[in-house]
């Protein structure tokens, strides 16, 4: 338990963190990644380069410092961090490395006049408290996933049993465990962690499960990213029969039980977690509105599958919006960027609905704004990022 004095010191550094938090964290990352090569594979270099990961961690530390007297107010943030950590297999032995680098970065960036021994000691105690909370929560989830039917801990070898080209740039991979055992049931919307060795270097990535896991297999659907290391490797080299290490499914962007109308909105490859959500929702009575936006028909994945479901389930209405008309593929319901008026026409009349959306950051910012303007309660408007969380305002 932190002393009242430590808490007061930590809180007094909040304004400092607000103005200089990002520089501090950037400095911290540079130091950690160069001095501790053992943690390098855990981090996605592209997220460092874009600044998204340093920004997400800076935000996490800032929120923590701000709420140090009432940690229960951190709400979703802690769950998000824990799920991301579990999916990438962050372990207790990693925490002292982050702690040592963070404290060194604080003292180096602030300078000895501000970073007095009292300030450093208070931050040391505060980091220790936060690390204990995360380590404890993560340990409980690791144990739960290991003990659940079909569950496991750490990496488990899976074989690629099928590959399907879903569009010009998205390919699905089906995985079954090499040991032929059962697999952990994933909640619709969850993602898996993947560990690979490319050119002798270990890398990890997360991929949303794009189908329910009840057939004893996991499916992911991957977009080829220009210049992307893992997506290009998967597209070009991971063939049927190859093996790959997976961590157990994780994630809190999951379909909550409800009988309100469900609206699933996706942009591009953001469609993946909405597919098992759609499958699960159609096993209930609730109305489902499935809205998908793609650049054009050529890159629109899963159209036939969703159309077939819509033909079979009158409770499902589906709407497609293409940014451009390529003149070749089946037409969309509208062309251009999804406007508020168009979205209004595609939403159920009852605005007391549950919305889940995912896509590029700019797309999500627009959808969030539109849903709010159209009267969907903010608490019922849920989203996730295919990378570190960022502000959508
Ligand atoms: C929870 C979650 C779920 C996800 N689900 C899916 C999914 O269902 N389907 C899917 O396709 N993806 C998904 N992703 C994204 C996925 O994890 C990868 O980020 C994505 O496949 C790109 O990885 P990559 O290795 O191919 O690209 P990376 O090598 O990470 O590169 C990404 C981009 O950054 C650029 N870049 C890389 N390094 C640098 C650098 N040092 N400086 C500047 N630019 C750089 C690359 O050129 C490329 O354009 C998900 C991510 C998360 C967090
Ligand atoms: C108190 C300590 C820590 C805090 C407050 C913290 C906070 C965060 C936050 C806010 C995110 C982004 C979550 C998201 O938006 O999805 C994150 C992701 C992550 N964290 Fe931590 N973390 C801590 C410790 C650690 C440790 C010890 C490691 C391992 C060395 C680690 C590795 C990672 C990785 C690899 C990611 C994902 C990065 C990516 O997507 O590129 N974290 N953490």
Summed up:
Helix content is 40%, strand content 20%.
Layout of secondary structure:
Elements: H1 4-12, H2 14-35, H3 45-50, H4 52-66, H5 76-87, H6 95-110, H7 117-147, E1 156-165, E2 170-177, E3 191-198, E4 201-208, E5 218-223, H8 229-237, E6 243-250, E7 262-267, H9 274-281, E8 288-294, H10 303-312, E9 316-322, E10 334-335, H11 340-346, E11 354-358, H12 361-373, E12 381-383
Helix pairs in contact: 1-7, 2-4, 2-6, 5-7, 6-7
This protein binds flavin-adenine dinucleotide and protoporphyrin IX containing FE (HEM).
Residues 39, 42-44, 47, 53, 56-57, 60-61, 80-81, 84-85, 88, 90, 94-95, 97-98, 130-131, 134, 387-389 line the site of protoporphyrin IX containing FE.
CATH fold descriptor of the largest domain: Globin-like
Instruction: State the helix count.
Output: 12
Order of helices and strands: HHHHHHHEEEEEHEEHEHEEHEHE
Low-confidence stretches: none
Q: What CATH architecture of the largest domain do you see?
A: Orthogonal Bundle
Mean pLDDT: 92
Task: Give the class from helix and strand content and strand pairing.
Answer: alpha/beta
Q: Which kinds of small molecule does this entry bind, naming each only once?
A: flavin-adenine dinucleotide, protoporphyrin IX containing FE
Strand content: 15-25%
Which assembly state applies to the chains in this document?
single chain
Q: Give the CATH superfamily of the largest domain.
A: Globins
Helix content: 40-55%
CATH first level of the largest domain: which class? Mainly Alpha
Inertia-based shape: globular
Backbone CA Rg = 22 Å
How many domain regions? 3
